[in-house]
Amino acid sequence: MKRMKIRLRVKLLASFLVVILLSLSALGVAFYTISARQLERSTENQMTQIINNAVHHTNLYLSSYQRSMVALLSNLSVKKYIDLPSDREEYENYRYMTDIRDSIVEPVWIRNPEISALYIIGYNGNALYYFNSGTEPSFSPKDTAEQIEYFKSHTDGSGRLTIINHTIQGKNAAPMLTLIRRIRGLSSPDMKGFVGIEVKSEELSTLWKGIDLGEDSYFFIVDDQGQIQYHTDPSKVGKQISHKLASEMADAGTSMFRSSAEGSKRAYISRKADYSGWNLVVSIPNSQLVKPLETTRMLIFIVAALTFLCALYLANHFGASITNPIRSLMKGMSQTEKGNWEFIPLPKRHDEITELIVRYNTMVNRLSELVDIVYQSELKNKEMQAERQKAEFQSLQLQINPHFLYNTLETVVCYAVIQDSDEISEIVGALSYMLHYSVRTNLEEITVANELKHVMYFMVIINHRIGRNFEIDMRVSPDLLLRKMVRLTLQPLVENVFQHAFRYGVEDHHAIIIDAGEEGDGFWVSVEDNGCGMTPERLEELRAKLRENRLADDDGEAGQLKGGIGVANVHRRIQLVFGEDYGLTVESGLEQGTRMIMRMPRSAAKQLAGNGAEAASKPELLPPGFSGKNDSWHAG
């Protein structure tokens, strides 16, 4: 007993420890993961905001130069000058140079004094150069031709603004940014030359000097060639970034990414400026990002350790409070094991354990009574169900078992033969077969072939009744003829068509199709007509009748066939033989015909034993003229 107490107590303590460790681990991992994500998202948002502001101010700054260029592009004097022939007079060149300077260039100097140079160059060699300050260089026709070729290879052919690191002022000039675009002449829609503005690179760098990202973090700008145009470290301006960093930057797009391309692992995020096509990049060392996470992780470990120690003490105390009362309960139950008491005795003290013993004794007593009641109830229900099914079978069998009529019909056939009446002989012969088919066996399962043969003899009688040969389109595949189905279910559906679908008489366009098929583990046989169909209300009424899952009454309710076996009875007979999952379904539309589908379980294609096998094995399985798939047959 002592060993048992120790084992239970240790087991409880171990269980508590597992729960505590799992809870602390899940809480720590969840808290750390959420904190890491929030911190990274906050850092990314901060970097995104910084770089978006830089892009915005850069685009605003460059757009002011774009407006200055628009004035040049729309000026008639500029367009006329572009169209001048290369052998123009020197006076013409001077006149246009003066007009353009007075009307456009001088206002541009006033609005944008930081512009260093402005020039207009035509493909034919015409060129006007304007410089804001300093020594104005002169250019020979050869220099102009070289400039034209350079700008043709470095500008957009459609006339879009292009920003390039280039200057026509010579190698000794300060670093410049050239904003240039192609221009059309006045007489032709084709591009005829260039309009360019040069700005000192240091003018743009003043926009970004105020960006402060913290220790060892920096901001830089690279052009589309990978050359650094601005960097918080001036010594890196003009250098190329590594191919690896350029590739990773292109793959990341606007998302933050981490890379070790610059030696140490850093986080980067970049944006492309609209006017210049430059990439503006913010870079922060990865150690700066993970430092708050390391602090958070250490705090989580300290708190988890203190919590675990407190929980360990409480778990040990709680386990003792459970095992001690259980030991008292085990001593009482051991007496019951010896057979001294029928129920576990109640202890003197009244607490939860005492209540547990009281409930246990009550439960044993009640369960014993309930088991006996349930057993008797199940037995009674099974007997009632068997009696009900037997009564339903007998009730339906009484409708189709007239032995005396079969014997009488045999006598009528004899008289018809003596009187040489072929029609009476054929009708009575068919009816005789049908009655013999209904009484010769007690088996409820029969083959599809037997049911089709029964339908064919029924059609012999129908054809004589309607006074014409009516063909039924048989589409049953031969390999389905030995599938099992319920006896006397197909002929009632065919009879239902003549009574209800062709209620005003059989016309030439009327047709009945009998088909069969397999779906998964199921097998179906359908009877389809092109008669008057049913209204939605009538169809729902019939379906409701089928959902009741009981034999139809004899008072003409929905689904009842006058003088025959009702649709509801066909549905119920299938369910009684194969189960509630099978039966009859109806599809119909007003003036669109009706389709009744019998669904049964799929069974092996084998001959039935007993009387059923006897019918299935006869050579006259089907009347002459019926071969199976897609065949039509008529009696007469």
From TrEMBL:
Give the catalysed reaction(s), semicolon-separated.
ATP + protein L-histidine = ADP + protein N-phospho-L-histidine
In Swiss-Prot or TrEMBL terms, this protein is called histidine kinase
Q: Where in the cell is it found?
A: Cell membrane
Chain spans, region Disordered: 608-636
The terms under GO molecular function for this entry are: kinase activity
Domain named HAMP: which ranges? 320-372
What InterPro entries does the annotation carry? Bact_2-comp_sensor_kinase, HAMP_dom, HATPase_C_sf, HATPase_dom, His_kinase_dom, Sig_transdc_His_kin_internal
- Please provide the record's keywords in A-Z order: ATP-binding, Cell membrane, Kinase, Membrane, Nucleotide-binding, Phosphoprotein, Transferase, Transmembrane, Transmembrane helix, Two-component regulatory system
What organism does the record attribute this protein to? Paenibacillus chibensis
Q: How does it sit in the membrane?
A: Multi-pass membrane protein
Note the PANTHER family from the entry.
SENSOR HISTIDINE KINASE YPDA (PTHR34220)
- Source domain of life is Bacteria
Q: What is its main location?
A: membrane
**Domain called Histidine kinase: residue spans:** 417-604
